[in-house]
From TrEMBL:
Subcellular location per the Swiss-Prot or TrEMBL entry: Membrane
One Pfam family here: Sugar_tr
Keywords, ordered alphabetically: Membrane, Sugar transport, Symport, Transmembrane, Transmembrane helix, Transport
UniProt organism field: Prunus dulcis
Membrane-spanning parts: 19-39, 81-100, 112-130, 136-158, 170-191, 203-223, 284-308, 320-342, 349-371, 383-404, 425-445, 451-472
GO cellular component: membrane
Name listed for the protein in its UniProt record: PREDICTED: sugar
CDD domains recorded: MFS_STP
Major facilitator superfamily (MFS) profile domain boundaries: 26-476
Molecular-function annotations in GO: monosaccharide transmembrane transporter activity; symporter activity
Family: Belongs to the major facilitator superfamily. Sugar transporter (TC 2.A.1.1) family.
Length: 528
């Protein structure tokens, strides 16, 4: 028996597959969900550092930023309402994920992406036209629902449609588009901040309609994944799509494996309850831990509030936005590095190398800020300011080729088909829950921890690096359907959880023998 409990070659053969234009185009279109997510992450930090936006929606914070020497530099932006503007998106996304899991499983990956696009468009209109804080928050909640559906469907879509040998690279397109979205938002914020008249923030929030439209159109144009079609009983359509995306007629071995996976999956009546079974705990533990660790690297604190953070350190408003553009560009370039290296170097090596780089850069930032940025100091010396930006870029680069993309890739490729949608739902929920926690708490933490905030996150980076070293197995170039045999059953710890897999697998095989009367004549299609 192989990963997910269905028939495949125990030798781990790779199915015949060409890298077809339809796969590349479908993946690019689907990954625009990441573009929208990234834009939402990047735009919020920029507009919250714009004086006209603060004056209209958060006058208390605006007055604090204008009063010199009264408030601590670290506490100027400490406001629960301001943090709620950013974090409400992630709380809404967390709630929407449950509905998205059902939609993705019952109706397919495409409808979930289409629903995400519609939510994004509604949220963009409400935010761009916002007249009061309530309208602004409702818009963010709509955007959050879009994030919930997109983050549920897109990583699954990319993992299922990509050939095994480039699955890692194509899956990281989602993360690459997140980084491009952040950079795009930073550039837009830098430009709109120069608009006189105080309405630049409306342009920043309204331009989110561009990636929202791309995702909606993309969802209408892409093909559904063969995994989803087979799962819903559309066998001939599934086989036809498989031929199209693989560029060959020799798809029978892969198709039979998908059909058998679907048969086993249909025997699971309660996928969320099944997730808690002993044999599924390793995948669940890894997926949940990766999402928690991804947020406790501190990356979203940097990306949400980069302009605010640089303002706190004494940069002017323009300089703060400019510095966040630089970090956004580094983010994009480093994610491209990950696309080229993830299927060559492997997941573990990227995570471990990045752990060292992130830890050192955060510790040095904390030391510099501890000595140079006091509660009421007016400025950070230019040389040190440049050095801090370089260190932040070093940190962002390490995250962008490791925890950023791999936090999404690894869970999407490790769950078997019968728990994949439920597993992805838990993954997204955990990510959004801890994104909400960090977004809601960061500015208050910055006020109380001051420079120690970077030591706090560096401590977490150390912990997660040890987790990767001892508990995360390598999944490079291993077909999703063979993870159990070739990954979990070979790991020094997780193999202990695979005992009931063997027992249940034998039970299923025994039932099949009784039905068919012989061992080798089992036709998975006839069992559906």
């Amino acid at each position: 028996m192989t990963g997910g409990g269905f028939a495949a070659s125990s030798a781990g053969q790779e199915f015949e597959a060409k890298i077809t234009p339809i796969v590349i185009i479908s993946c690019i279109m689907a990954a625009t969900g990441g573009l929208m997510f990234g834009y939402d992450v990047g735009v919020s930090g920029g507009v919250t550092s714009m004086s006209p936006f603060l004056k209209k929606f958060f006058p208390v914070v605006y007055r604090r930023t204008q009063e010199q020497g009264i408030n601590s530099n670290y506490c100027k932006y400490d406001n629960q309402g301001l943090q709620l503007f950013t974090s409400s998106l992630y709380l809404a996304g967390l709630t929407a994920t449950f509905a998205a899991s059902y939609t993705t499983r019952k109706f397919g990956r495409r409808p979930s992406m289409l629903i995400a696009g519609v939510f994004f468009i509604i949220g963009t209109i409400l935010n761009g036209a916002a007249q009061d804080l309530a309208m602004l928050i409702i818009g963010r909640i709509s955007l959050g629902c879009g994030v919930g559906f997109a983050n549920q469907a897109v990583p699954l879509f990319l993992s299922e449609i990509a050939p095994t040998r480039i699955r890692g690279g194509l899956n990281i397109l989602f993360q690459l588009n997140i980084t491009i979205g952040i950079l795009f938002a930073n550039l837009v914020n830098y430009g709109t901040n120069k608009i006189t008249g105080g309405w630049g923030w409306r342009v920043s929030l309204g331009l989110a309609g561009l990636p929202a439209g791309l995702l909606t159109v993309g969802a209408l144009l892409v093909v559904e994944t063969p995994n989803s079609l087979v799962e819903r009983g559309l066998l001939e359509e599934g086989k036809a799509v498989l031929r199209r995306i693989r560029g060959t007629d020799n798809v029978e071995p892969e198709f039979l494996e998908l059909v058998e996976a679907s048969r086993i999956a249909k025997e699971v009546k309660h996928p969320f309850r099944n997730l808690l079974k002993r044999r599924n705990r390793p995948q669940l533990i890894i997926a949940v831990a990766l999402q928690i660790f991804q947020q406790f690297t501190g990356i979203n604190a940097i990306m949400f509030y980069a302009p605010v953070l640089f303002n706190t350190l004494g940069f002017g408003s323009d300089a703060a936005l400019y510095s966040s553009v630089i970090t956004g560009a580094v983010n994009v370039v480093s994610t491209v590095v990950s696309i080229y290296s993830v299927d060559k170097v492997g997941r573990r090596m990227l995570l471990l190398q990045a752990g060292v780089q992130m830890f050192l850069s955060q510790v040095v930032i904390a030391v510099i800020l501890g000595f140079k940025v006091k509660d009421h100091s007016d400025d950070l010396h230019k040389g040190f300011a440049i050095f801090v930006v370089v260190l932040v870029c070093t940190y962002v680069a390490a995250f962008a080729w490791s925890w950023g993309p791999l936090g999404w890739l690894i869970p999407s490729e490790t769950f078997p088909l019968e728990t994949r949608s439920a597993g992805q739902s838990v993954t997204v929920c955990t990510n959004l829950l801890f994104t909400f926690v960090i977004a809601q708490g960061f500015l208050s933490m910055l006020c109380h921890f001051k420079f120690g905030i970077f030591l706090f996150f560096s401590g977490w980076v150390l912990i997660m690096s040890f987790f990767v070293l001892f508990l995360l197995p390598e999944t490079k170039n291993i077909p999703i359907e063979e993870m159990t045999e070739r990954v979990w059953k070979q790991h020094w710890l997780w193999k202990r959880f695979m005992d009931d897999y063997h027992i249940e697998g034998n039970q299923i095989a025994g039932d099949d023998l009784k039905k068919n009367g012989h061992a080798n004549g089992f036709d998975p299609i006839s069992q559906l």
